[in-house]
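Justification of resources, computational component.

The compute hours requested in this renewal are based largely on the per-chain cost of generating structure records like the one below. Each record pairs the submitted sequence with a full structure-token output. That output is archived, and it is also reused by downstream analysis tasks.
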Amino acid sequence: MASDGVAAIVEAAAVLKEAAKAGRLVLAFGNGGSAGDAQHLAAEFVGRFQRDRRAAAAVALTADPAVVTAVANDRGFEEVFARQIEALGRPGDVALGITTSGTSANVNVALERARAAGLRTVGLTGADGGTTGRIVDVHVNVPHDRPARVQEVHRTILHAICELVEEAL
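The structure output for this chain reads:
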């Protein structure tokens, strides 16, 4: 139902807003196009979305190819985000995983590790939400099976979240 989706978006924005106001870190991650969306979100938080305001702490765990490839080589691809969560995440921070299927193993391992470490978890998914939808604190789902359509809606959702967070800063 559309109203359920709006409520989830508002709830996700509230989690990110609370973190930003408290100076906590948002750790965003995903694969492929979702990796690009994670980087886009981090850029909007650190830079600006629509207006000048103080910077909000965010990092895309996809943005450092040396770290990603070192962890993938030494520990396996399923650990590329989880290891960074261990290194950078602290209780009260937010782990935001983006996956069009909800079944990306490396995203789910990182979200599970984040919850165990006391981070809030937010998942943006497609299809039926998969494992991601069941393990996160806040689940924003685009119930569609085509990744391209899901990614298009994810970008719009992320912009709505950025606007809501920016209004609070």
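The first strand starts at residue 26 and ends at 30. Residues 147-168 form the longest helix (22 residues).
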